[in-house]
Write a structure and sequence with these properties.
The structure is a single chain. The protein has a single domain, classed as Protein tyrosine phosphatase superfamily (Protein-Tyrosine Phosphatase, Chain A). 32% of the residues lie in helices and 12% in strands. The chain starts with 16 loop residues before the first strand and ends in a 10-residue tail after the last strand.
Length: 190
């Protein structure tokens, strides 16, 4: 799924991909896609699968909230800084797996943030449209997006792009979503 990108003539390359998965689909995603890195966004502890080296598994334990709530851990600037720092260690030679319980809010926010960081300024709206097309259930956590917009100095473009995605399709659990990382074929500002 995602944008089709053609390698240069005579050059074979494997498209770097970002995967979004539900907790239930992790084992299948690892078996089928063989990711090198895994990001877990759950308030429950998740053991590192044997196929992923422990130093390539980052956990962010936050609740899916956008305003402070008693007994809940809201996503913070430090969480987003940690997410970006970890993701920047990814060499893109194998897929990067992001997961949450259902793969709807925190995981889609993390994937959106990572793609905005990788592709750079000017692609915020295009990434949001791609995410909506490939993951109609995506409902990125708005607090995570606000923090990332500030950290990445996007001047509200990430927030506006996610807001423009419209309503998400309601699902209980999702299939693995594959997002291409490269920008070839994308149109900035469209």
């Amino acid at each position: 799924m995602g944008l089709a990108i053609r390698p240069a003539p005579g050059l074979w390359c494997r498209m770097p991909r970002l995967l979004i998965s539900s907790y239930a689909a992790i084992a299948d995603a690892i078996l089928r896609h063989r990711p090198s890195h895994m990001l877990t966004l759950m308030d429950e502890h998740v053991a590192t699968p044997p196929e992923i080296p422990s130093e390539r598994h980052h956990r962010i334990r936050v609740h899916d909230i956008v305003e402070p709530a008693e007994g809940a851990i809201p996503p913070s600037m430090d969480h987003i800084d940690g997410l970006l720092t970890f993701a920047r260690t990814w060499t893109r030679e194998a897929p990067f797996l992001v997961h949450r319980w259902a793969g709807i809010s925190r995981s889609t926010a993390a994937a959106y943030i990572l793609l905005c960081d990788i592709r750079g300024p000017g692609y915020e709206a295009e990434i949001a449209r791609e995410l909506r097309e490939l993951a109609p259930h995506a409902q990125p956590n708005r607090l995570m997006i606000r923090h990332a917009d500030q950290i990445l100095a996007r001047e509200g473009r990430m927030i506006a792009a996610v807001e423009s995605m419209g309503e998400a399709r309601i699902v209980w659990e999702t299939e693995v979503v594959e997002l291409n990382v490269l920008t070839e074929g994308l149109h900035v500002g469209s």
